[in-house]
Write a structure and sequence with these properties.
The chain is an alpha+beta fold. It has a 13-stranded antiparallel sheet with strand order 6-5-4-3-2-1-13-12-11-10-9-8-7, with helices on one face. It is globular, with a radius of gyration of 19 Å. Helix content is about 20%, strand content about 40%. It contains 8 helices and 13 strands. The chain has a single domain, classed as outer membrane lipoprotein receptor (LolB), chain A, CATH 2.50.20. The chain starts with a helix and ends with a helix.
């Protein structure tokens, strides 16, 4: 497996949690967990002006009402009050499986650290990866992407950087933060697929990237999303579908512990969360370029 392939794989995964990234359930413990900040674990009283889930299911809903319903449920009934308080930062550890073109599967472990900014473009994200071939990190901060391998920085290929950004733009988190990001919403109707009634809404962000979300009309969980991306240097857009399973409650917020990514209808990646902890304080040095930090320390 070439480094190009490795970068593309993890580029696709990086912001599924934040990215994607959003993830679920009570915290699963495997080994010692980082200590969470106690100030981020106490949900506040539910605002009186937020509609209850039952109210959201009555009548014809606008795209904004559907999105607000999804936000309410993602915060376990408390909406933004919990999401903004609890998921300001965190650490997620998991396992991902890539399906190769010849049908073989390739596994890797990852550790995702993030610190949210006032907008998604101001987030800080670090993804540490370990495969049978290599260990390296991809880091996003200050609107730039760089990598670190064996303590030395490198510039990821264009395909990896594009996939990295795509996973931030096309994620559950992008919907939950649509207001702060200034994204636009529109309704794509109501449908019934595989016996499940779903609302479809389109989100267009400030970079004109479009994502269609399919949200359960009964539970207001995001079940899957769809988008198209044209590879760097390519001319034909590729259709991607991202499906979310095994929703759990983690520190009062809803997280899907299993995510499947499909390319033109063919599964190419599966991600499973092992543990996730929010409210973990992290040093800024985790997200800094080693060369820049070294230069700053020398006159």
């Amino acid at each position: 497996m070439s480094f190009r392939d490795i970068f593309v794989v993890f580029g696709r995964v990086t912001l599924l949690a934040i990215c994607g990234c959003l993830l679920t359930g009570s915290v699963v413990t495997r080994g010692q967990q980082p200590k969470a900040d106690p100030s981020t674990t106490q949900p506040q009283p539910k605002p009186k002006n937020e509609p209850a889930p039952a109210q959201l299911q009555k009548g014809v809903l606008t795209a904004e009402q559907i999105a607000e319903g999804a936000i309410l449920i993602a915060g376990n009934g408390y909406g933004r009050l919990v999401l903004d308080q609890i998921r300001r930062n965190g650490i997620e550890r998991g396992r991902l499986t890539r399906i190769m073109e010849d049908g073989r599967s390739e596994e890797a472990r990852y550790e995702l650290r993030f610190v949210r900014g006032e907008k998604s473009e101001k987030d800080k994200v670090r993804l540490d990866n370990k495969t049978a071939q290599a260990e390296y990190s991809l880091i996003y901060g200050g609107g730039r992407i760089f990598g670190i391998i064996n303590g030395s920085p490198f510039t990821p290929r264009a395909e990896a950087s594009a996939d990295f950004i795509a996973q931030q733009a096309h994620s559950i988190e992008a919907l939950l933060r649509y207001k702060e990001n200034g994204s636009k919403l529109s309704s794509a109707g109501k449908d019934k697929q595989q016996g499940i009634e779903v609302y479809a809404i389109d989100l267009i962000d400030n970079a004109n990237r479009k994502t269609r979300y399919f949200i359960s009309a009964r539970t207001f969980r995001v079940l899957w999303l769809e988008y198209e991306e044209t590879p760097p240097g390519g001319s034909t857009p590729i259709k991607y579908t991202k499906r979310f399973y095994d929703h759990r409650i983690v520190q009062g917020t809803l997280v899907p512990y299993r995510t499947v990514l499909m390319e033109d209808g063919k599964q190419i990646l599966e991600m499973r969360i092992l543990t996730v902890t929010y409210g973990v304080k992290m040093e800024d040095s985790l997200f800094q370029n080693p060369e820049a930090a070294s230069s700053a320390g020398n006159p």
